[in-house]
Amino acid sequence: MTLTVDGMRRPPEGYAWSRFGLQEYTDWLDESMSWKQTCYIGDWSFLWQHRFTGPDALKMLQEITVNSFATFDIGQSKHAIHTNVEGKIIHEGVLTRFGDQEFVLHGRGGFWASHYLASTNYDAKVQQEDWFIFQVSGPASIKVLEKVTGDLSLRETGFMRLHPITIGGHKIWALRQGMAGEIGFELQGPMELKQEIYQILVEAGQEFGIRKLGGRTAPINHLEACFPTIATDYLPAIFEPDMAGYLKVFTASMPAFAQPAHVAGSYDAADISEYYRSPVELGWGRNVKFDHDFIGREALEFEKANPKRTIRTLVWNSADVLDVQASLFGKGEHYPFMDMPRDQRGFMWADKVTIDGKLVGVATSRGYSYYFREMLSLATVDLAYSEPGTEVTVHWGNPRGPQKRIRAIVAPAPYKTDRRRSDLTNS
Predict the structure, then answer these.
(1) First CA to last CA across the chain, in angstroms?
(2) CA 399, CA 392: separation in Å to the nearest integer?
(3) Are 224 and 371 in contact (CB under 8 A)?
(4) Residue 121 class from Cβ within 10 Å (0-12 exposed, 13-18 middle, 19+ buried)?
(5) How many Cα neighbours within 13 Å face the side chain of 185?
(6) How buried is residue 275: exposed, middle or buried, by Cβ count under 10 Å (0-12/13-18/19+)?
(7) pTM of the full predicted structure?
(8) What is the dihedral sign for C-alpha 363, 367, 368, 371?
(9) Which of 243, 288, 400, 423 has a C-alpha 20 to 30 A away from that of 118?
């Protein structure tokens, strides 16, 4: 899961990338304020899309998805979560119903669903799509979209519902979503329209203070709004013997920079499965419904009734964080550098969380919030120590290298107020 040299974990050479696009446009401080004060446009076109069609498409998707499909209207989207038999997450993404027998799955889950479909006799087929995906999010996002579409009925769009719009004479889709924890829409359409649509939105947004969202600050909205991310907050549960066939297919489908198992930080697991997470642990237990049979149901029924861990925000002590940075200016050993606002190399950076020397959790997604002027992280924490206000210690460093004990306070997740479902009629 990580490179090892003489018993020490080392970052893979050349493994420096940002899944969220270019590093910066204005600068990360300015861009990180956009989704609270004005709005941004971010490019998520790197996400894969798979279209599933046929009489049995829905039945097949039900078998691998924890969500209820008892109500699934045409034009509705769901945060679809796929688990293994142990209830640990394989993949998750956005599943949208475009027709009675037509579904599009955004994200890596499409590869798992395709692999699973191939093992069945269901009357369904799959094809990979090539769409652009733009997020336009923030309090002014609705005004930007109204300007370019002239469509005042956008304000009536329900959360996780599609709305057809026309931009520059092109019909595309707007999904009300909001991955920054703010009012937001995800625009989807054919890749050949990408640059034209993007430019129209950027030009129209100048009046409203729109910012292009760069890769350096994009992950901060996931941190502030608590959207745990694959390969950053957990590893996909695909490294077990019964998943060997899928692992081979999946890794062959991914570019080299997107391989899902590079881990750093002070938490040194004995087995890769310790980096797996369940929907319950990541705060997605509300999505798990037992009105249908699905892979992992038995394990998740038990876990929902007997939860052990939950997700929280940790607020790191500023003086201790400054000690880490100051160590770079002295001679001798120093602590690992805390990249600002977050590490850009695409690792799962997992750090031990303790109380009086006892392991009580694992911190991930460490990042600096310019909005709050605090260093934050997400963390899966034992329920007994998850009460907001609880004092914990985060161990910053490598397993066998110098480590700084950083005081931290348990806080709610999300840390920033969730405004995704705000009433648009008065915005």
Answers:
(1) 46
(2) 19
(3) yes
(4) exposed
(5) 26
(6) buried
(7) 0.94
(8) negative
(9) 288
Instruction: For residues 153 and 159, give the distance between their C-alpha atoms in angstroms, rounded to a whole number.
Output: 14
What span, in angstroms and rounded, lies between the C-alpha atoms of 215 and 230?
A: 16
Question: Which class does domain 1-305 fall in?
Answer: alpha beta
State the DSSP code for 234: B
Q: Tell me the C-alpha distance between 78 and 105, whole Å.
A: 10
Distance between CA atoms of residues 32 and 308, nearest Å = 34
- CA–CA distance, 300 with 277 (Å, rounded to integer): 12
Digit-coded pLDDT (tens) for 146-177? 999 999 999 999 999 999 999 999 999 999 99
Q: What is the CA radius of gyration of the chain?
A: 21
Q: Rounded to the nearest 5°, which phi and psi values hold at 96?
A: -120, 140
Residue 190 DSSP class? E
Q: Write out pLDDT tens, residues 31-56.
A: 999 999 999 999 999 899 999 999 99
Q: Residue 140 has what DSSP assignment?
A: T
158 Cβ contact partners less than 8 Å away, ≥ 6 residues apart: 176
Instruction: Return the bridge partners of 176, or none.
Output: 185
The share of the chain scoring above pLDDT 90, in percent, equals 87
pLDDT at residue 302 is higher than 50 = yes
Residue 331 structure tokens = 């001679």
Cβ contact 296:369 at 8 Å: no
Size of the chain, expressed as the number of residues it contains: 427
Task: Provide the residue type at 49 as one letter.
Answer: Q
- Helix ranges restricted to H, 211-332: 218-224, 244-253, 297-305, 318-326
Burial class (CB within 10 angstroms; exposed 0-12, middle 13-18, buried 19+) of 74: exposed
Q: Is 128 helix (H, G, I), strand (E, B) or coil?
A: strand
- Tokens for 401, please give them: 């290298």
194-208, 242-256, 370-384, 400-414, range with the lowest pLDDT: 242-256
Strands (E), 143-183: 162-167, 170-176
Minimal CA–CA distance to 122: which of 59, 80, 68, 67?
59
Q: Give the dihedral sign, CA 237/241/245/248.
A: positive
Domain boundaries, the chain: 1-305
